[in-house]
Structure to design on (474 residues):
């Protein structure tokens, strides 16, 4: 298979600028979906185009008699992919990769994934999954939602970062352990850090939504605690919003959770300013209730290990 | 009697590419009906097959993009078309070498979810001769009427997403 355009005999005699044009013209002539007028070719280029189509069919081992719509689409895709590969050979695509990552538009398998310090052992022990399993869930998600930080300033956005929420329902060893995992990461360009993996056992919920943030809401309806940020009314989830700060109070008094007699932890990514707070996410979990559920499913959890992170 | 709207289904990424690299000139296929399956059986609109019916296209593309199906034949077709468009814009001088590489790298690295569909709702009024009837040999079915518009500006249509 050709790896560069000069591997095609039909293109070798053409100037470099013509090769891509002929390849695109050949692909367009076969493609089911056209999105522009035919590309204009010189007589020499037209001749090369005809030879290229023959050559491409030969590379793909397509018999002469076969010319169905599927075959034409296959040849068209092959030619355009060859063009793309050739154009990107030796090119540093890191800036594009970072930009797409920042927007949450990068292919999931292309993110660089790591765990927040100490979180991998906690997560794998509590949920009975391997580190590789969790990374695999993020790289091949069943559902994902990416959210952008409300803060443009890069330094401030470190504590109220871009975030991604994943959902996956792995096949369990025992049917009664069927669960959906919600994975929460912070995102910076094309890198993601895994902070939390929360398990929703289907036997504990009536029916579950499919989107990760809806699943997080469902999780917190059952295991969440009321949290207050600044002057806000208490609730179970704050997500990508701005709230007024409590006047005259130190940062340590701006976020509080009502755990009552239960043990619990809260996760918070927010930036506190003198008069307001910009939140990426804040929620609290009643660990007594949540860890009890994990134990009922044969796990030996320690604690969620959540901790506050704010500035 | 023709309806007031025309319908076209395009991937979201194509919309943004045309705006960013293609000078904002949208070259599209469109149909007089959103759902040929709902047209009266003897109407020419009923002859538009699923492969060109906006409703079917929208649902297939949405399903494939939501599942991030990297083996999707429909996404592959759209991808082939967009790669060729980038070369056309480069050849026409609308983008320079750096723009071409950036556009092709984006196609290569972008999440399949970005190929999810937008439905263009295009008021027919005022299009006049810009609404081109596709010759029978180029249609998915010779009996079903399909159209092209070669120079549609974004102010001439609404692009919507729905479940």
């Amino acid at each position: 298979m050709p790896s560069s355009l000069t591997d095609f005999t039909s293109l070798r005699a053409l100037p470099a600028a013509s090769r891509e044009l002929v390849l695109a013209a050949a692909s367009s002539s076969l493609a089911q979906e056209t999105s522009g007028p035919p590309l204009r070719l010189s007589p020499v280029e037209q001749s090369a185009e005809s030879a290229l189509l023959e050559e491409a069919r030969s590379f793909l081992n397509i018999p002469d008699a076969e010319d169905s719509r599927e075959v034409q689409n296959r040849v068209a895709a092959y030619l355009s992919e060859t063009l793309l590969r050739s154009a990107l050979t030796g090119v540093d695509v890191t800036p594009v990769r970072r930009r797409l990552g920042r927007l949450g538009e990068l292919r999931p398998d292309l993110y660089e994934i790591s765990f927040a310090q100490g979180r991998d052992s906690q997560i794998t022990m509590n949920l009975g999954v391997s580190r590789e399993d969790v990374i695999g869930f993020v790289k091949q998600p069943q559902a994902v939602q990416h959210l952008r930080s409300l803060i443009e300033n890069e330094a401030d956005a470190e504590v109220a970062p871009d975030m991604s929420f994943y959902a996956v329902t792995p096949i369990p060893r025992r049917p009664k352990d069927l669960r959906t995992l919600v994975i929460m990461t912070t995102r910076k360009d094309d890198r993601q850090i895994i902070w939390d993996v929360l398990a929703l056992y289907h036997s504990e919920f009536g029916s579950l939504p499919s989107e990760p943030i809806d699943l997080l809401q469902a999780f917190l309806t059952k295991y969440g605690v009321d949290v207050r940020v600044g002057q806000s009314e208490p609730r179970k989830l704050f997500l990508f919003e701005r709230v007024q700060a409590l006047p005259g109070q130190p940062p340590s008094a701006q976020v509080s959770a009502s755990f009552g007699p239960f043990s619990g932890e809260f996760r918070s990514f927010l930036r506190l300013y003198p008069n307001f707070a910009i939140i990426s996410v804040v929620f609290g979990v009643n660990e007594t209730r949540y860890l009890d559920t994990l134990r009922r499913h044969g796990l030996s959890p320690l604690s969620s290990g959540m901790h506050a992170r704010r500035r | 009697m023709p309806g007031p709207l025309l319908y076209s289904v395009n991937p979201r990424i194509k919309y943004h590419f045309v705006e960013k690299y293609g000078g904002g000139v949208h070259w599209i296929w469109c149909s007089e009906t959103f759902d040929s399956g709902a047209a009266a059986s003897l109407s020419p609109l009923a002859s538009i097959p699923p492969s060109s019916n906006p409703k079917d296209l929208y649902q297939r593309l949405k399903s494939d993009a939501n599942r991030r199906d990297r083996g999707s034949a429909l996404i592959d077709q759209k991808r082939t078309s967009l790669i060729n468009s980038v070369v056309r814009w480069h050849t026409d001088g609308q983008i320079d070498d750096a723009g071409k590489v950036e556009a092709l790298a984006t196609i290569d690295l972008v999440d399949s979810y970005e190929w999810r569909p937008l439905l263009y709702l295009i008021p027919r009024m005022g299009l006049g001769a810009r609404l081109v009837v596709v010759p029978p040999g180029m249609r998915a079915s010779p009996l079903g009427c399909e159209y092209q518009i070669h120079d549609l500006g974004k102010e001439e249509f609404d692009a919507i997403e729905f479940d």
Summary: The mean pLDDT of chain A is 90. Chain A has ten helices and twelve strands.
